[in-house]
Specification:
Largest sheet: 9 strands, mixed
Mean pLDDT: 77
Distance between the termini: 155 Å
Family: Belongs to the TRAFAC class dynamin-like GTPase superfamily. GB1/RHD3 GTPase family.
CATH superfamily of the domain at 24-220 and 233-317: P-loop containing nucleotide triphosphate hydrolases
InterPro entries: G_GB1_RHD3_dom, Guanylate-bd/ATL_C, Guanylate-bd_C_sf, Guanylate-bd_N, P-loop_NTPase
CATH topology of the domain at 24-220 and 233-317: Rossmann fold
Order of helices and strands: HEEHEHEEEHEHHEHHEHEEHHHHHHHHHH
Domain GB1/RHD3-type G: 57-177
Pfam families: GBP, GBP_C
Transmembrane segments: 557-576
Length: 602
Amino acid sequence: MEISYWIFVFSILLFFLVSGSSSIDNFHQPFPIVEPDPGHTKLRLSREGLEAISRITTPISAVAVIGPYRSGKSFLLNQLLSLSCDEGFGVGHMRDTKTKGIWVWGTPLEVDIDGVRTSVFYLDTEGFESVGKSNVYDDRIFALATVMSSVLIYNLPETIREADISRLSFAVELAEEFYGRVKGQDIAFEPAKLLWLIQRDFLQGKSVKEMVDEALRHVPNSDGDKNIDQVNQIRDSLAVMGDNSTAFSLPQPHLMRTKLCDLKDDDLDPMYVKKRGQLKELVASIIRPKIVQGKYLNGKEFVSFLEQILDALNKGEIPSTGSLVEVFNKGILERCLKLYSERMGKLRLPMPEKSLQDAHERSREEAMKAFEEQHFGRHHAKKSADQLDEEMKEVFKNVIMTNEYQSTRLCEALYTKCEDRMDQLQVLRLPTMAKFDAGLQQCNQSFEQECVGPSKANYEQRIMKMLGKSRSLFIKEYNQRLFNWLVAFSLVMVVVGRFIIKFILVEMAAWILFIFLETYTRMFWSAESLYYNPVWHFIVSAWETIVYSPILDLDRWAIPIACMAALGILYCRCYGRRKHGSQWLLPLYNHQKGGSNRPRSD
């Protein structure tokens, strides 16, 4: 019982999985690729149509037909595809479900365009000016068809109205932003070729080209009406786009328009059949593969492109070319920002603020130049350029903070090093002003050369204050320490002269120095005048000359020299006495009780 239950559950799950992952078997039919949302204001993608397009691996081209509601767009597409109404796009007066959103014929036509095997899709769009829709929704349909297609057929009944020209404002803006904007291989996308298709009952009178030229002619606006000015601007732009548009007239196929789907070609107006063939040839001659950013799009890439465009058009309350420009410039903006960041990342921080500012200006100029060479859009690109500039400023702020941190870290380390060096000089075994000044100068020079960046000025004040205090403290203790050293030195020399080298002149000189320092200076010189006396200056100069020089630093070598001298004296006293007797010693201390060494004579 339990086993049969689990088999039943597994069967149900398998059924749902299989039914949920089923794909389309028959592509010889129309599929929706874009549908309206429930509010009928924005658009959303349809899985069926995207699946029909995604399977294509060759370059894609799209032919879209736009026009007013009930103007015969679906019937025209069926005629271009040589399809009947039963198998092709649904015709309004025959089916309850009219075209909603944008539909695609699932089986593309395979054609050879300049040696490139191209799959041509035909798109049917929802007619505008129908009941229950907003103008914004119509604008989104029109905008999306304009961007997607390589050929845009503007299907108009009888004549060209003022409202029909206004509808082209988005196409005009696209052309102004992107048309002819080619930098090497970077092409955002070529605007669709605009085909004015005017269907009318009679072909007498004005030609369709004359009708288009007349419709695009300036309308007098003596009252300064803003709407008329706006339409006149569109007329000017469309006139400039003359190379990217063409016109064609097509007679009505039959007077009984509600029966068109039931009629064969033999029943249709011969002139219509002839012009229909010419229209097919015209469309085939102007079809080009869809190029986006320098490359042909296959099915999957076309779907990805469509997703980007639809997202951009749905962002704002009103679809705009500015949002599309941002989409195409997004990758370029990121590359230029990366270029700027790489240039700034190569800087060796810390560095002076002016040098950093100069490096920022050079890197910014290089990035902006790269953006100017690669960006898409002529008018709306300024927003992307401003965004790039703002993001570079943010990166520069981070670089400034890093430079300040590195500068503080470096200067603090140098300051601490100098402070430690001054502390070492304060406790010299043999105090010498020359060595202290040399250390102070070396410390100051190394700080001046190595400390860079915004923190230098602050640390310069600190180190100068610290060095000044250290020098004052050293000078204050220097004279007293030197005096004490000289007293100690005189006593040592007394001992050396008396007991070691036994040289009475050395001992006497040492006693004279000791007595002078301890009696005469205290009796006749005050503590203040001692250090300003010429005799003391002479003593200081002699001390500085003996203790420190670029060749010999007694503070460092005093102990080794003293040890060597002691060893030398010890050697002379021990080994020299055995070899030479006592004659090497000075005679003053060579008292012998036995009298003369001469032999006695009788």
